[in-house]
Amino acid sequence: MPAIQAALPGIQSIERRNMNIWEDDAVRSAVVKTQRRRLLISGLLTEACVSFPVLSALAEGYEVFVVGDACGGLTMASHELALRRMEAAGARMTSWIQVLLELQRDWTRHETYDGCRAIVESNAGGYGSTPSAQHLAIGSTRSMCHPLN
């Protein structure tokens, strides 16, 4: 995946042939070597290449987050069912924008602001910077406010 390699040039990809990366010694060893117990997983074929390692890692006590909208399935129904299966087993669901914003944490983090904002503008329509998004936010806020009597 050239875009990921460009963003993370120091990370070496690992070739694998099986659907469950958790069963690949090189991949599993690389994960174990990090000594991290929290995993963030996305990928293609939600029903196999995502769900199999998620279920395996959960069974070994890892905390697993699945970036559901950064996964793809054969059909929308099978994708949703696979997400539900992983969630029922203990995986936590999240979205790409949630991950990005948790990493950014605050727009005052100037060293990553431009890159983060560019991703949001390219993929999420500007994150509330358009007049229609601002109007919607103002309208929603007004509907939550009640005058004191």
Instruction: Kindly state the percentage of residues in helix.
Output: 55-70%
> Which word captures the global form?
globular
CATH fold-level name: Rossmann fold
CATH architecture group name: 3-Layer(aba) Sandwich
Estimated radius of gyration = 19 Å
In round numbers, the mean pLDDT is 85
Read across the widest sheet, the strand sequence of neighbours is 1-2-3
Quickly name the level 1 CATH class: Alpha Beta
Report on the structure:
This protein is mainly alpha-helical and 149 residues long. The protein has one domain (2-144): Rossmann fold, CATH 3.40.50.850. Helices cover 55% and strands 8% of the residues. The protein has seven helices and three strands, in the order ααβαβαβααα. It has helices spanning 2-7, 25-34, 46-59, 76-89, 96-104, 110-124, 131-144, and strands at residues 38-41, 63-67, 92-94. A three-stranded parallel sheet has the order 1-2-3. Helix 3 links the parallel strand 1 and strand 2 (63-67). Helix 5 packs antiparallel against helix 6. The longest helix is centred in the last third of the chain and has 15 residues, at 110-124. It is globular. It starts with a helix and ends in a 5-residue tail after the last helix.
Topology:
Layout: H1 2-7, H2 25-34, E1 38-41, H3 46-59, E2 63-67, H4 76-89, E3 92-94, H5 96-104, H6 110-124, H7 131-144
Parallel strand pairs: 1-2, 2-3
Helix pairs in contact: 3-4, 5-6
